[in-house]
Amino acid sequence: MKKKVLVFAPFFTPSVKGGGPIISTKNLIENLSEKIDFYVLTSDRDLGDSLPFSDITRNTWTKIGNAQVMYVNPKTITVNRLSGIMASMPFDFFYLNSFFDFRFSILPMLTKKKYKEIKGQLVVAPRGEFSPGALQLKAMKKNVYIKIYKQLKIHDSIIWHATAESEKKDITAVFGNNLTIRVANNLTANYSDLIYEKDIVKKAKTANFIFISRITTKKNLHQALEFLSRVEGNVHFSVYGPIEDVEYWKKCQKIIESFPPTIKVEYKGILTHEEIIPTFKKHHFFLFPTLGENYGHVISEALIGGCPVIISDQTPWRELENLQVGWDISLDQENEFVSTIQKCVNMDSENYNVLSRSAFEYGKAQANRVEDIESTYLLFQ
Fold it and tell me: What is the pTM of this model?
């Protein structure tokens, strides 16, 4: 008999603003649905929206792709309501896509603690929330949550899903070594049939950079702009993603206004998931000095789009320069970031084409490896 897994996802398709966890959930289901029956409890509206989606059925299970999905108004989620949903069928596992999300993680954990008749096992994927950079954001509030969970000993009964050895270390740094932590890389879409396609000219002293992510402090767009301000040459920087933090975006706009005519920055709105890889194919380099990612689906998608990456060292994507697919640089090494960006601007067509093809081949090789699918399946055994 197939096991039943209830996934708590703050956002799920048709959401386009919720970021990488949407893709993580979708890929989890697509890769394992032949072996597991998935149910998804999710918000009936997109990130930051006051109104629900117009084309969904709410408050009941609806077949979406290979899963049963229930869309609910997040404000209606309470411990009492969750107890009814979690006990409505014999779920074997409850998979949480966050540790700190109040309604889709904290309340389900408290519900499981309160109602002993709910037998399913909790599996928590913190999605990079315990990285040093992420913990610095709203640190006081997060420390309170962590202290409460340690006192209630909820963390002791959890299976933790770390998507890299580095994330495993981050989790143990917070909760200690007496934990059940299983490491399984995030799964991707199936790219096995893709071929290299990159129809963009690269001229020396000219480069098109791109940023695709939520516009918030953690994703570090402002520092990316600071790096660009120190670069010489003709630069075009396309920025895509939902403006989650309006005040942070105003701070970014202020530095954009100070740029010389040789550096052009354009905010181009929000992309659907289907538009992301084709958009990467139209740009030279992905500039993403994030404060922390447990995986970074957008990094994988940049590589598949033949777009070499310039990222921080706060992701599992490491040793990229040695692999000739990009660069991962410490955020403390600002001069190294600037010199690398300058190197990219100066790069000629011949060298760029070699780097771009190498990025594609590496991204494709890292996608949906058999061992990653198997280790993810073992999370639910």
Answer: 0.84
Cα dist from 284 to 202, 269, 280, whole Å:
7, 19, 8
Residue with tokens 């055994």: 381
Tell me whether domains 3-188+368-380 and 206-366 share a fold.
Answer: yes
Residue type, 22: I
Cis peptide before 90 (omega within 30 of 0): no
Q: Which of 71, 149, 67, 163 is nearest to 112 (CA)?
A: 149
Is the sign of the CA dihedral 147, 148, 151, 156 positive or negative? negative
* Series of mean pLDDT values for 10-residue runs along the chain (381 residues): 94 88 90 95 92 94 96 96 95 94 94 91 91 85 88 82 90 90 87 89 97 95 97 97 95 96 96 94 97 88 97 93 97 97 98 97 89 92 89
SS (H, E, C) the chain: CCEEEEEEECCCCCCCCCCHHHHHHHHHHHHHCCCEEEEEEEECCCCCCCCCCCCCCECCCEEECCEEEEEECHHHCCHHHHHHHHCCCCCCEEEECCCCCHHHHHHHHHHHHHCCCCCCEEEECCCCCCCHHHHCCCHHHHHHHHHHHHHHCHHHHCEEEECCHHHHHHHHHHHCCCCEEEECCCCCCCCCCCCCCCCCCCCCCEEEEEEECCECHHHCHHHHHHHHCCCCCEEEEEEECCECCHHHHHHHHHHHHCCCCCEEEEECCCCCHHHHHHHHCCCCEEEECCCCCCCCHHHHHHHHCCCCEEEECCCCCCCHHHHCCEEEECCCCHHHHHHHHHHHHHCCHHHHHHHHHHHHHHHHHHCCCHHHHHHHHHHHC
- 260 CB neighbour count, 10 Å cutoff: 9
- Among 3.30.2130.10, 3.90.180.10, 3.30.420.10, 3.40.50.2000, what is the CATH number of 3-188+368-380? 3.40.50.2000
β-bridge partners, 311: 288, 328
What CATH number was assigned to the domain covering residues 206-366?
A: 3.40.50.2000
How many residues are there in the chain?
381
CB atoms within 10 A of CB 356: 23
Count of C-beta atoms within a 10 Å radius of residue 151: 8
